[in-house]
Specification:
The protein has a domain at 200-345: Butyryl-CoA Dehydrogenase, subunit A, domain 3. 51% of the residues lie in helices and 16% in strands. It has eleven helices and ten strands. The chain has helices at 3-18, 22-25, 36-44, 56-69, 74-86, 197-236, 248-273, 280-305, 316-328, 333-346, 357-370, and strands at residues 99-102, 116-118, 124-134, 141-148, 151-158, 164-169, 178-188, 193-196, 238-239, 242-243.
């Protein structure tokens, strides 16, 4: 058994003990469930320190995928996504192991309406808002880009502080608790400015990669859970005196679901193993593939379950909601594919002046004939 497989077993045991099982998830008194015990166990077991080893992100990825398979709490997902990247840049300690961050792409771009940081020295104040924040524990720190006199900065500030407001917002997915955060002339200490200029741009780029990979891993876990539910149901649900899994239409749909999961897993494994080595393209490709696979697999799972899948108590509709939400968060699939396509096109050899794409094709065919 490999180290990742051993970790996977441990994570599954912890989740079975401290988080509602998927078949019972929809029957909880309130959604999402309170994650207090699971957060405490994760801290005790050192899940936030898994990336101390050279290949540590592969271990974090294992945990994130398992959390996706049980619709795990957003607070823990945020901590595991953001925490490790801050251990090397935070000055004077980060003050807490619990974090919050916006999970929408516009906040990461320089042309977005980022919060504004005014003042100099120890007289800094921040004004602005950050939408779709996930992770709002009382002692959490918000990681956000900001603009300081036209220069990019990255701040790590308290979620709950003087002159701040956290407003809960609803989404189509009741298993995620989002909020809009705003500040009005909130005092900011120099130690809360993590990076400036090029360092800030690099830190935001890393945040973008980590959020996209986290969403992809969550989506893969969702897709696998939906596939497992469907296969188990197809074995016990009978129609015309036979399990529906014996019907050709259900078999074909199940195989299609399996293929979607496997293709996404291959791309995601490549992105995870090469994370941190200039693999931005792979992160985008994996995010687009995993999120779309989850959306398709959960849709098929709902169809295979029939009417029971639409009931509130059944987890099928919750898996579909999570899959569709993950598609909208981070870098959208169409934007990710455009970025990957532009990068691949830029890497092609330049055509001689006056040549056309047809000439390029002819030269390639000639090379193949010689080979």
């Amino acid at each position: 058994m490999s180290d990742r497989e051993a970790l996977q077993e441990v994570v599954q045991q912890v989740l079975a003990d401290a988080w509602p099982p998927l078949p019972e998830y929809g029957s909880q008194r309130s959604l999402p469930p309170v994650p207090g015990r699971l957060l405490s166990l994760a801290e005790e077991l050192g899940w936030g320190d898994l990336e101390e080893d050279a290949d540590g992100f592969t271990f974090t990825a294992t945990v994130l995928e398992q959390l996706g398979s049980v619709l795990g709490p957003g607070e823990l997902v945020t901590n595991l996504t953001v925490g490790p990247m801050l251990s090397t840049v935070a000055q004077g300690g980060i003050g807490s192991d619990r974090f919050a961050v916006s999970w929408t792409a516009p906040v990461w771009r320089r042309d977005a309406d980022a919060p504004v940081l005014d003042g100099e020295g120890d007289q800094l104040e921040m004004t602005g808002s950050v939408p779709w924040v996930l992770g709002g524990a009382p002692d959490a720190r918000l990681l956000t880009p900001a603009d300081h006199e036209g220069r990019p900065v990255v701040l790590l500030v308290p979620v709950h502080a003087e002159r701040t407001r956290l407003e809960q917002v609803s989404s189509s997915d009741p298993t995620r608790a989002f909020a809009h955060w705003s500040a009005d002339a909130m005092p900011v200490a120099q130690t809360q400015v993590l990076a400036r200029d090029d360092e800030a741009v690099a830190l935001v780029a890393e945040l973008k990669e980590r959020v996209n990979l986290s969403l992809a891993l969550d989506s893969l876990g969702v897709a696998k859970a939906a596939l497992d539910l469907t296969l188990a149901y197809a074995k016990v649900r009978e129609q015309f005196g036979a399990p529906i899994g014996s019907f050709q239409a259900v078999k074909h749909r199940s195989v299609d679901m399996f293929v979607h999961v496997q293709c996404a897993e291959v791309l995601l494994e490549e992105a995870v193993t090469r994370f941190g080595s200039g693999a931005a393209e792979r992160c985008l490709r994996a995010k687009a593939a995993a999120c779309e696979a989850a959306a398709e697999v959960t849709r098929s799972a709902l169809q295979s379950h029939g009417a029971v899948g639409y009931t509130w108590e059944h987890p099928c509709h919750l898996l579909l909601r999570r899959a569709k939400l993950n598609q909208a968060l981070g870098t959208p699939a169409d934007e990710a594919r455009r970025a990957v396509g532009a990068s691949l096109t830029a890497a092609l050899p330049k055509l001689p002046e006056g040549a056309t794409a047809v000439d390029r094709l002819g030269s390639r065919e000639g090379s193949n004939d010689q080979a």
